[in-house]
Queue: 2 jobs
Job 1
Amino acid sequence: MTETTIRSVVVTGGAGFIGSTFARLLVERGYEQVRVFDKLTYAGNPANIDDLRSCPGFSFVQGDICNRDDVERACEGFDAIVNFAAETHVDRSLMDPGEFITTDVYGVFVLLEVVRERGLKRFVHVSTDEVYGQVSDGSWVETDPLAPRNPYSASKAGGELMLGAYVATHGVPALISRGSNTYGPYQYPEKFLPLAATNVLDGQPIPVYGDGLQVRDWLHADDHAAAIELLLCKGTVGEIYNIAGSNERRNIDIARIILDELDVPEDMLKHVTDRKGHDRRYSMDCTKITKLGWAPSVDFESGLRETIRWYRDHREWWEPLKSGEFGEYYRRNYGGREVVEA
Ligand code: NAD
Ligand code: TYD
């Protein structure tokens, strides 16, 4: 274990879902300077960090991780970068993969270059369980091979490999976290949970891909953020750490809890044409980060129900997101899908 004192952090992608949760955690924990650096793509939302703007030591800079000048300027005088910036939605990666390769691979390379040249103390790169690909039995450990099966996860794997190369060749002080499916407030409503909850709240059905028996391991955003903060201070350079909630659930069961919490009947659930190359199950072993002292603290069922109620009570947050660009995306992704037998 290597412990480093980090007082100032640039949170790239910090106007997104998990990045904003992480930036809030750093502010609450008294970091001297917390800077959100974000391109504000369709998924980046200034409203996610509104509450932080007046906090001492907090700043926001709009910029692109693929633009070296932007990154260099934003990191001047900071100890560390934690990188959440990415294109993140599998369905979009099936339709338009180009931007995924640009941000999730080239963007990570730019960040690594800046960390190397400017001599930053730490770079934590936030990755995903999806780089392992699907697993039918058992759980992946950090040394298992990468076998991504869609353009999103392949791009994330590419970014990870570049990081490994910079650690080995230039000794860049970088490490990787691999988180599982994350849920909580402020998640862009293209992802399954907020999409399903907000659809129901709008009187629309939940589109369940295929038989709905695919399994994801759900992790609350607060627990995900706390794990990454632990790695920032206590993680070992060059290492990879799995982070999961140990809440493996079938999609259909998540959908049923949403129906139950919002008190709507089962016929609001529609099985539709499956996602291409849909990974059946993700599962990771988290022994390694547990040994550093992390454990998830949010009880799954109550965390999930509380999250559903948050979307119910925050229409002003998600309604603007479901208009404009989102409508076009929704038609492209869901318009051609047929209702299928479960
Ligand atoms: P998100 O889509 O909500 O947010 C991504 C953020 O990155 C947005 O604010 C966006 O504006 C910003 N961004 C995109 N391209 C950028 C660029 N070129 N330069 C600067 N900013 C850019 O994503 P999220 O769900 O919060 O995920 C954050 C990270 O965590 C991602 O790296 C993702 O791969 C990883 N992750 C997510 C999950 C999950 O379930 N959501 C699980 C494991 C890992
Ligand atoms: P998603 O939130 O897109 O995350 P990921 O694909 O990264 O796991 O999807 C979670 C699960 O829900 C995944 O198995 C796909 C499924 N899903 C649906 O059944 N319907 C949908 O409309 C969406 C967006 C996802």
Job 2
Amino acid sequence: MSSILNADLHCHSVVSDGTLTPEELAARAAANGVELWALTDHDEIGGQHRAAQAARANGLKYLTGTEISVTFAGETVHIVGLGFDPDDAAISQGLYETRGGRGKRAQEMAEGLARVGIHGAYEGALRFVGNPELISRTHFARFLVEAGHCRDTPEVFRKFLTEGKPGYVPHRWASLKDAVQWITNAKGLAVIAHPGRYKFTANEEYALFIEFKAHGGQAIEVVTGSHTPAEYVEYADKALEFEFAASRGSDFHSPDESHCDLGRLPPLPGKLTPVWELLAHRIQ
Ligand code: AMP
Ligand code: MN
Ligand code: MN
Ligand code: MN
């Protein structure tokens, strides 16, 4: 398979913080010319069988997927898993535990918002939630937009949901080691999601790459909806430097919010090894 395959290996459904069902995403991906697809809900694989079936119905090749929340050097880092066995007990249990703190965190977020005069945010956010185990900042953002506190979700994050802001609650997620091992032990491949988005110093980023590799991580996202074109080039160089394969994915969440639609990204730079070459045997 060539590097110009239209692969979209990162997006979200109502099973986490997206607004479309797995079936709607598969149809949209097919309409946009995607050839190989993965649904990567946050900390959750409950949509995997539906997504694989919808992929088949729409003529798409499919890789199982998830995006695991990890705490590394005091920051939240996302690790995408691709091609793992969706019936593996250890990854299911690990993700279940990772989701575990979200309810309490959401209540604390609502308390923080109430202190600045925004009441009912927990109940408000819940109305946007498709999966009760997966209440996320995105659902709060949708409520705050609907209630007229902000114009759009990026503004909500800027004013309310990022470090130092009233609705932000620090949280401890999975360890990097556990996340990578859940994926690789289930025959999958671990990928650092959108590395350009973390606020790391060069030394911290180096530590992330080296530790990730030491635990068995094999790839980074290079072309993603979360990177600028300059970052495609920067992380293509880093993929070569650290001998990582490269992934490509829109990180699509919603037709109303996402600036990058499914399948609408430039191809991976040709000199890189695409993750789908390493995962050919796991494609359904
Ligand atoms: P959580 O897992 O609850 O911390 O929520 C993280 C999610 O919030 C991410 O996966 C994105 O979908 C969304 N998000 C994070 N930062 C921003 C931002 N600046 N603007 C819009 N959405 C964001
Ligand atoms: Mn998200
Ligand atoms: Mn992410
Ligand atoms: Mn994502």
